Amino acid sequence: VQLVESGGGLVQPGGSLRLSCATPGFRHDRYAVAWFRQAPGKEREAVACISGGTRNTHYGDTVKGRFTMSSDDAKNTVLLSMNDLDSEDTAVYFCAADPRAFDNISFYCRSYYFANWGQGTQVTVSS
């Protein structure tokens, strides 16, 4: 199943951006969905994850209070609203999904637990 991200681009520091990911075939009430990011020379890190079933949400420490992940079940889409962006947020952002619910999402919000990935979308924060 191919996940498809969109919405990346260039934004100035302090600005906002919203990413979208189409997740065909993944029912959000059952499957875990997530956003990860990877900057050049750095490891892939968790941005936000939502568990299936319980719909618990976990955010990475560096984005708490600035980013919000949500799920549009009718459109089978997950969204990532990003506010107060700075240069440290520059990265390729990946959408991920897994057929397991991961109720303890704080533990499972790690890239190696997710089986299905999109191609990624570039976000660049620069003046």
- Run of helices and strands: EEEEEEEEEHEE
Helix count?
A: 1
Radius of gyration: 13 Å
Q: Strand fraction band?
A: 35-45%
Alpha carbon gap, first and last residue? 37 Å
The secondary-structure class comes to mainly beta
Number of strands: 11
Shape from CA axes? globular
Helix fraction bin: under 10%
Largest sheet entry: 7 strands, mixed
Give unreliable regions as ranges. none
Q: Calculate the mean pLDDT score and round it.
A: 94
Account of the 3D structure:
The protein has 127 residues and is mostly beta strands. It contains 1 helix and 11 strands. Strands 2, 4, 5, 6, 9, 10 and 11 form a 7-stranded mixed β-sheet that branches. Strands 1-3-8-7 form a 4-stranded antiparallel β-sheet, with no helix packed on it.
Please write out the topology:
Elements: E1 4-6, E2 9-11, E3 17-22, E4 32-38, E5 45-50, E6 57-59, E7 67-72, E8 77-82, E9 91-98, H1 105-108, E10 116-117, E11 121-125
Parallel strand pairs: 2-11
Antiparallel strand pairs: 1-3, 3-8, 4-5, 4-9, 5-6, 7-8, 9-10, 9-11
Can you summarize this structure?
The protein has 127 residues and is mostly beta strands.
Relevant terms:
mainly beta, seven-stranded mixed β-sheet, 127 residues, four-stranded antiparallel β-sheet
